Queue: 2 jobs
Job 1
Amino acid sequence: MKQKPWTSWENKTEQEEEAIKSLRAAKKIILNNIPKNKILAIYVGGSFIRREMTQKSDVDTWTIVKDNKLLSKFEKLEKEYKEKYKPNLSLRAFSLWELKNNKRYLKRKKPRANPGRFVKKIKNYFLIYGKPLNTKDFIVRSDEEDLKKLIKAFNKTFLPLYEKGKLRFSDILKQVFWLVELEQKIKGKEVPYSWKKLVRSIENKNHIIHEALKFRVKRIKDEGKRKRFIVKLKKYLKSLEGK
């Protein structure tokens, strides 16, 4: 197995040091509660790997299992252990069936990314247990299809939930980054696996991504500014629908 990238990170922050401890705990929890012969791989990704954690960032792990029936176990584990560590743990899982078919086995109340997005992102994640997945035969949607689905999710799910107080502003911001990433990929641009680098790659300072990063980094809580951002986001979504 490759050397863990964080072992060679220079000037690790206190939060990153704590995140490494959370990651060790996550791996231990998974291996102690899920039969090892049912686990294909465990990956870590997200803001931790990008070195872009905020105070609200979780340590994101994805476990790939052989059996669909084990998926509900991860929801119970996350509920039990998530907030026992700082940074919090995100113990997500996909079954091999989900990844091969790009379909969710379990219905969830909260929106979550489709398995195909994980497959597309896997090259940016780091394997901490098991063997690397061979994804060449897995079903994924085109970037154009993903963009249409994400726009629909914003209009039908994310924004209505946010307006009802059931989705955090930080969750909206996270999805905006994925939205812009898809927009840039469809334009044929090489998109870095870094939100800060993504922002720097877009010269137009009026693009919504610049404002989104300010909200994320400075943790702006002004309700008036947030409302104006949501208005701008809705206009941005309409502009993408016309493309």
Note: The first helix runs from residue 14 to 33.
Job 2
Amino acid sequence: MNYFEIPNSSRKYFQTAYTTFEYLFFTYILFKNIKNRKIKPYIVILSFLFIVFQAIYVQLGTIIKLDTIPIGIETILIVFYIIVFLSELAKNMETSIFRNYCFWISIGILIYLCGSFFFYILIDSLSREEVLAFGKMTYIVEIIKNVLFGISLIIFSKAGFKKEVHEEIRPAPYLDIT
């Protein structure tokens, strides 16, 4: 089904669901990788408030082309979470930052959200021709995000494989009972 085949009355629910899912997915990844226990309750509270805002906005707000206000709030919150994660990662550099799979995910999310932020915020004031022309530029940041996600998968798979190999090398305990 094509997006434009969705009835206009249902599009706002589709857009809101997409924005909410994207927020929850990115937040979950960052939440699992942030180790600071003091900041985690704030992330949960902000996420709850964001979901409540989304529910209210979809009922009361007027969505012309895109849910621009929730996208702006989503971007600001996730950029804040990324800054917290990256500062925490920089402080606790046990190994190279580049060997952390979540570093690449967070950089991909950061490039994607910041690269498309102003376009999505201003989309309601653009004509259809401008949206079609400038909308293609958001594909660039989406491709970069996907490449960085791919790099993170490679790093994650190598790290997971090394853990499995180290577990197999451990010597068996001496259990001779004679």
Note: Helices lie at 8-33, 40-60, 68-91, 101-122, 128-135, 137-169.
